[in-house]
Each structure stands twice: as structure tokens, then as C-alpha cells.
């Protein structure tokens, strides 16, 4: 979870954990530790955990190693606490907390609690403890110090998890979790390079929109943001660019690299949400309601767009769904 170290050049590995349904908590923790040590632990040893943690370990999450970087997503129903901070360390870590709280105790930087909706980035030069509140959801990144430490100037960086730089970093780590097994050695190299560039962006609070390595992360972050606001009438390329602190042209270039304009992506996702609504067994909205909710000019525009996308009018599609 909070272990660290130097990875092997070119190394990559990953595993998923879910101990929430296991009845033997000590056995659940032992299984997690074995997976970590087998898949991630080379260069990223786990600290020792308290007896309360090992005795009640209810966690869902995933961990991925990309060369000398470790990425961990944690959704813990139970609280966690270290018992022994382990050896001296020399890494940079980023904690991004979406729910609950993650408290860092001692070590370089002193005690600090990362609350929900916040991130904290700092160099870890001394061994330290950590503790989490129950029902904490967080992402923890362990990164090599050599590149990032000079940017920090012995200062921690703290702010909103919804900042543009953190959104981009989160989007990229999610892509790595999802695609690591499919990446070629060149893909692993590119993924690692983009990770480091995005971590630098968080450290200096500024995203380099001209860095080509970061285009996929920018496109993914924009898509995630758009998906959460598809019913918003103000959603546009300009609003997405503003939220992500890049120019409209930079965002358009990132989408062009993936072969689909921003506006086309938004319309496609809105049509897909409308299609799913038409499959509802009850409480199905009317065509006019769907058109209004998903921000089409009127029912006629919605019907034409739907038919072009799916080969049927919304009404015909709903009837077919009823017959199936």
C-alpha cells in the first residue's frame, strides 16, 4: 500500500485484490501480502501493519508496477495502520484521497492528514507511519526521487484532487491499470515517461500542453470529465479546456490523435446514454424528454442522430427491446 523503492528497469506487473467477502481476515491479509511481494514487492517492500489491521483487512483495490513507479488504488472498508515504518526511504509519493482520510505520521514533512477531495505530494526521506480512516478510498503513487525532488525544494505540495494536473495524472494511471498487460515494451516506456511528466506537472502545478507524451492522458481526463457532465447544457470543448487548464487547440489536438473530435465524442456518449434509457423495463422517458435531457436541439434532431448512429429510430429501438 505505502511501500516503496527502486524498480527494475523495464519491469511491469499488477494484481487486483478484494478481501471484502473473505471471512478469515488474517488469511485475507496474508494473501494480499503474498500477492504484493510476488507481483510488486521487488523494490517496493510493504511496511509492517498493526495487529488490528491484519486482523480486520477488508480492502478492494489494485496495484501496478511500471518500472520504478508503483501505483496503488485502495478502497478500504476497514481502517489501516502501520506498526513499523520500515527502512529509511528516498522516494516521492503522491496521495490522492477521494473518500475518508489518510494520515501521514512522522518522517520528512511531519504529520499531515490528507482529507477527502485533496492530494498531497512530498519527498519521503525518512521512514514514516501512516493510518487511514475506515471507508477510505485513495490512490497512492510511489515515484523515484531523483527527477522530482529538485522540483519540490524541500516543500510538500497539497491541493484539490480536482485540479487539472491531478485529473490528468489520475486519468493516466487508470489507463495504465486497464491496459498494462497489452502494452509492448515501447508502450511501457511511453506510459512511464508520461507518468513522470504528469507527476512533474503536479509538483509545479502546471501542465505542459505541448508535451506529446501527455496527449492520451489529456484526452482521457477530458472524456472522464465530459462523461460526468453529459446532461449539462454548457458542456463544450471550451468548458472542458478551461476545466483542464489547457487551450482549446491543445485539447483538440489531443482528441485528433485518437481520431475523434471532442464534439463528436460528446454527442456519441449522449446518444449512448439515451439508448440505455430506452432499454429500461419501466419509467422509460419519451423521445422528447430524451432529446431535452441530452441536450439535442429538438426531437427531430435527436431522432435523426439516433437513427444515423444505431440504424433505427428511438421508437423502433424501444419496440425491438420490448420484443427481445
Automatic annotation (TrEMBL):
Show the segment(s) annotated as Disordered.
Answer: 1-20
Tell me the PROSITE patterns matching this sequence. Answer: HTH_ARAC_FAMILY_1 (PS00041), HTH_ARAC_FAMILY_2 (PS01124)
HTH araC/xylS-type domain boundaries:
220-320
Pfam families according to UniProt: HTH_18 (PF12833)
Instruction: State the InterPro entries in the record.
Output: AraC_XylS_family_regulators, Homeodomain-like_sf, HTH_AraC, HTH_AraC-typ_CS, Tscrpt_reg_AraC-type_HTH
Q: Which UniProt keywords apply?
A: DNA-binding, Transcription, Transcription regulation
Please state what the protein is called.
Helix-turn-helix domain-containing protein
Q: Which organism is it from?
A: Streptomyces albiaxialis
